[in-house]
């Protein structure tokens, strides 16, 4: 149960972080947003990133073996990175229709899955 909760919180966390980091590139298409200066965009991104921390910190606290969770620190980090890339790829395909995924992106994803396999292998 802690493993599923950790993964779910990491997915939510990374969804907000992806919006904070890359959402402004899409939101610039909105007239009012496109007129904002860099400082305003940074502040909006920080506001979105606050929610990322509201999910990331509990995910790490619940998931960490030192707190009774199922994952080592290294496993938590690798899991978070893979979830970040999956969320980013989904965001890219949904929000940026002009971006294309190529064979080398798929191959890189396979290597990431292999990295997770080896990190989790006992």
TrEMBL record:
UniProtKB keywords: Membrane, Transmembrane, Transmembrane helix
- Is Transmembrane helix found in the keyword set? yes
InterPro entries tied to this protein:
DUF486
Residue ranges spanning the membrane: these are: 36-55, 76-96, 102-120
Q: Name one Pfam family in it.
A: DMT_6
Specify the superkingdom: Bacteria
Keyword Ribosomal protein set for record: no
* Record-linked PANTHER family: DMT FAMILY PROTEIN
In Swiss-Prot or TrEMBL terms, this protein is called DMT family protein
Organism the protein comes from: Algoriphagus oliviformis
